[in-house]
Amino acid sequence: MSRRADRLFQIVQILRGKRHVTARLLAERLAVSERTIYRDIQDLSLSGVPVRGEAGSGYSLLAGFDLPPLMLTPGEVEATIAALRMVQTWSGNAMAQAAESAHEKLLAVLSPERRLIAERSRILAPDFDRYPQVRRWFDVCHEAINSLQVLHIRYQDEQGRATQRNIYPLGLSFWGEHWVMVSWCENREDYRCFRLDRCSDISLAGRGFSPRADLSLQDFLRRQKREKREKRE
């Protein structure tokens, strides 16, 4: 859900809980301007939400209005539950906690029939704790990707050779049991991918980096597609 869509949802929730709400109160609660609230209220009205009131006097919802249960097909419910379970098992601790919270919220808004499907799902993602350090590395890498921080890693390649290098983390990709970090390697001055389970240490290097058109996850993916196409030809 986008930030704006989330805000519209929150406005409806606030209006549901109060008889009369001013634009100023909504703006303070949601940390936006009153002008933004006026636009949001107008958009909600145009989309069919029965908002009563006007700018300067406050707003309320017509009696009897409620949001419908989340409309997902049985297949969509089970696919979502399976995805959340996989994230809980295979990602870092922070994202696993977020997935657990999302799971609880999903169950709360599903219809009784769909909730029963979710609770009875037999698609599992068991954790055999094969790579316990990966959870810690995942959190460090995920945060570094979001904050554009250079990482220092100690890495052992497939031949068992140990190296140290500074990298610009660009993205995380899941290949079966293994998380792979897509990066720009300062040593090689090129893109490199590193398996998290082969890292003996990952830490922040204490400096940031600036992404460029030719130094980005999108550019890496374009190169991969081009190389794959050239091999076929």
From TrEMBL:
<dbReference type="Pfam" id="PF08279">
    <property type="entry name" value="HTH_11"/>
</dbReference>
<dbReference type="InterPro" id="IPR051534">
    <property type="entry name" value="CBASS_pafABC_assoc_protein"/>
</dbReference>
<dbReference type="InterPro" id="IPR036388">
    <property type="entry name" value="WH-like_DNA-bd_sf"/>
</dbReference>
<keyword id="KW-0804">Transcription</keyword>
<dbReference type="InterPro" id="IPR001034">
    <property type="entry name" value="DeoR_HTH"/>
</dbReference>
<dbReference type="InterPro" id="IPR036390">
    <property type="entry name" value="WH_DNA-bd_sf"/>
</dbReference>
<keyword id="KW-0805">Transcription regulation</keyword>
<protein>
    <submittedName>
        <fullName>YafY family protein</fullName>
    </submittedName>
</protein>
<dbReference type="InterPro" id="IPR026881">
    <property type="entry name" value="WYL_dom"/>
</dbReference>
<dbReference type="InterPro" id="IPR013196">
    <property type="entry name" value="HTH_11"/>
</dbReference>
<feature type="domain" description="HTH deoR-type">
    <location>
        <begin position="4"/>
        <end position="59"/>
    </location>
</feature>
<dbReference type="Pfam" id="PF13280">
    <property type="entry name" value="WYL"/>
</dbReference>
